[in-house]
Amino acid sequence: MAGFTVAIVGRPNVGKSTFFNRLLQQRKAIVDDVSGVTRDRQYGIADWNGKTFNLIDTGGFVAGSDDVFETEIRKQVKIALDEANAVIFMCDAASGITDLDESMTDLLRRTTKPVFLAINKVDNHERLLEASEFYALGFEHIFFISSMTGSGTGELLDAVAALIPDEQAAVEESTIPKIAIIGQPNVGKSSMLNALLGEERTIVSDIAGTTRDTIHTHYNLFNKEFILIDTAGIRRKTKVNEDLEFYSVIRAIRAMDEADVCMLLLDAEKGISQQDLNIYSLAVKKGKGIVLLVNKWDLIQKETNTARDYEKELKQRLAPFNDVPILFVSAKEKTRLMQGIEAALQVVENRQRKISTSDLNEVLQKAIQAYHPPVVRGMPISIKYATQLPTPVPSFAFFCNHPDDVKQSYKNYLENQLRAAFNFKGTPMRLFFRKK
Ligand code: GDP
Ligand code: GDP
């Protein structure tokens, strides 16, 4: 299913990151009262009433003169309009309408994308009265919220979520496996794509991605059909390095949404960075299949155990979920690229694997006999049986007497037993515990 992306824009200190953190229920961003604190742009996945969407906080202002602000807001709005399906434009009720709010309004009026004006810091009734001046900005959708207390944020999110198509209603356009090539700038995505294009002449067609700037290419190689989704086209978007990186992350998230499996490219010389890990964990959260390709392997001085040691170290960084194929490739020398594709197709198959209830319960019973669920508050926990749910991401329901008391460590144990018994390599898995 294609993803839905919402961007938050607004001048510094209106409360964007407070709102963002509330939605993501994580406390990572720097929140500071000093206007113009430099902080990172952020992205994440938000859930609202069963609807999932990507959330971008375009933050990133730096202190400076007014004309610096002007360029910054242009940049911010451009990112939002390029990348998002809908925009939340945030203003601050405490300060009233400012010149920067008006500049942003001018930029946002030109878009056909839905814009939700959110007047933040409406913590009490007096503020609500003062905030009515914002109607003057002329937006159709206006919401009065307090990111601090959460008041009004539900209505805003309801309105945003109403734009997101139901997962069930989303029609599956094609059953051909979709593979996204993702990774940071300069890891070798274009080189890999060119190598694959050069390798084979049986390309069926180029089809437009569901969103701009992801290119879908339909392949038919050795009787295997697949669609490659590539995000290589972003370089021309921007000349500024810091922007390039942010664009590449947003684009990777979008390619991910459209894919069944992601080939995450790493640079062998640089190893895995925090940014790579962020992208990896987003793919896991989204339930996408994953294959790691360590590219530029030709540049590495190799001894007997170099690949083995490299893989071991990577797996430690990827934990807890590290049951993924890792291949050492070179786009330049065209080594093991087809193995990469084959691994990705195998992961797609693993992700679709359905286990019969009897096979599943055989494994479950053995697992329980080998290691019983730990007793909680004197109560023995008994897991009666399990069944696989009909979902795109392998999901299993375990029926037991006290579902809330099953420890995470025991859940991990069961997942590992399932992985040992059946081939789920490269695909995240979900385990649910229900009352029986
Ligand atoms: P950003 O620069 O737009 O991301 O703004 P921040 O999220 O960093 O918030 C700026 C300041 O406004 C911080 O001191 C927040 O605690 C404060 N703030 C954010 N939301 C609210 C709110 O709803 N009410 C009040 N009173 N303060 C808020
Ligand atoms: P992208 O930004 O991810 O699309 O990366 P590019 O494909 O443009 O590659 C960035 C740079 O890395 C270019 O100079 C490539 O020639 C180089 N490169 C890509 N793959 C390899 C490889 O396997 N080995 C070596 N030595 N260089 C590579």
Automatic annotation (TrEMBL):
GO biological process: ribosome biogenesis
Molecular function per GO: GTP binding; ribosome binding
Keyword annotations from UniProtKB, A to Z: GTP-binding, Nucleotide-binding, Repeat, Ribosome biogenesis
Record-listed GTP 1 binding positions: 10-17, 57-61, 120-123
Binding site for GTP 2: 183-190, 230-234, 295-298
The EngA-type G domain, residue ranges: 4-168, 177-352
Keyword NAD: no
InterPro entries: AAA+_ATPase (IPR003593), G_ENGA (IPR031166), GTP-bd (IPR006073), GTPase_Der (IPR016484), KH_dom-like (IPR032859), KH_dom-like_a/b (IPR015946), P-loop_NTPase (IPR027417), Small_GTP-bd (IPR005225)
UniProt cross-references to Pfam families, sorted A to Z: KH_dom-like (PF14714), MMR_HSR1 (PF01926)
CDD domains: EngA1, EngA2
HAMAP family tied to this protein: GTPase_Der
PANTHER family xrefs: GTPASE DER
UniProt function note: GTPase that plays an essential role in the late steps of ribosome biogenesis.
Similarity remark: Belongs to the TRAFAC class TrmE-Era-EngA-EngB-Septin-like GTPase superfamily. EngA (Der) GTPase family.
Subunit structure comment from the entry: Associates with the 50S ribosomal subunit.
Protein name: GTPase Der
Organism encoding this protein: Lacibacter cauensis
Taxonomic lineage from the root: Bacteria, Pseudomonadati, Bacteroidota, Chitinophagia, Chitinophagales
